[in-house]
TrEMBL record:
Residues 2-168 form the Flavodoxin-like fold domain. PANTHER family: NAD P H OXIDOREDUCTASE-RELATED (PTHR10204), NAD(P)H DEHYDROGENASE [QUINONE] 1 ISOFORM 1 (PTHR10204:SF34). This is NAD(P)H-dependent oxidoreductase. Gene3D superfamilies: 3.40.50.360. SUPFAM superfamilies: Flavoproteins. Belongs to the NAD(P)H dehydrogenase (quinone) family. One of its GO terms (molecular function) is NAD(P)H dehydrogenase (quinone) activity. GO terms for cellular component: cytosol. Keywords: Oxidoreductase. InterPro entries: Flavodoxin_fold, Flavoprotein-like_sf, NAD(P)H_dehydrogenase_qn. The keyword Oxidoreductase applies. The lineage of its organism: Bacteria, Pseudomonadati, Pseudomonadota, Gammaproteobacteria, Alteromonadales.
Length: 190
């Protein structure tokens, strides 16, 4: 059975991202093992206080998240895009979890990292308030940071991406369409 890590990366306890995660999880549970995390429920120091100079002890939720990454075949992250970037708490999660020795490592004087998360796939689902014609442009910095320079850097295959917006003007019909889209992704574990 496929192992899927599902992250609702909205720091708000109640959000459309949570509804999207719920929709995905309900369907994916039928054919996969789901390890779900809701960022709003995770309590940890977001600051990587000494960078990589010295190890910082992981809080239990971060250690559990790392274990879920290691066991995952597929990683699904659902997040809002705020100001063209990730919410601060989500960025803190990335900083604290994707560490040298866990997600990548260097050997000798070789500047090329050894990718420790090879063999995994991912899907990124972003919600935004940007106009529909501007969604791709607003998401580009986040995709570069999260997909290319984090996930791919560590060996995860290039992400499949869904962009939903503008959220601020979406009616129930549009939101239901997005929920059905994510539900269908959950059905196939994609």
């Amino acid at each position: 059975m496929k192992n899927i890590l599902l992250l609702n990366a909205n720091p708000k306890a109640v959000s459309f991202c949570r509804a999207l995660a719920d929709s995905y999880e309900i369907e994916a549970r039928e054919q996969a093992n789901i390890h779900r995390f809701d960022l709003a429920k995770m309590d940890f120091n977001q600051n990587l206080e000494t960078g990589y100079d010295k190890a910082q002890q992981l809080e239990k939720c971060l250690a559990d998240f790392q274990q879920a990454i290691l066991s995952a075949d597929h990683i699904v992250m659902i997040s809002p895009v705020w100001w063209g970037g990730l919410p601060a708490k989500f960025k803190g999660l990335i900083d604290r979890v994707f560490l040298p020795g866990f997600a990548f490592k260097y050997e000798g004087d070789d500047p090329e990292p050894i990718q420790l998360l090879k063999g995994k796939t991912s899907r990124l689902i972003f919600t935004m308030d940007a106009p529909e014609y501007f969604l791709s442009e607003q998401a580009l910095p986040v995709l570069e940071q999260l997909d290319r320079f984090t996930l791919q850097f560590c060996g995860v295959a290039k992400a499949q991406v869904n962009l939903f917006g503008p959220m601020i003007f979406a009616d129930d019909q549009q939101r239901n369409h997005w929920l059905q889209t994510v539900k269908s992704l959950g059905t196939v574990g994609g």
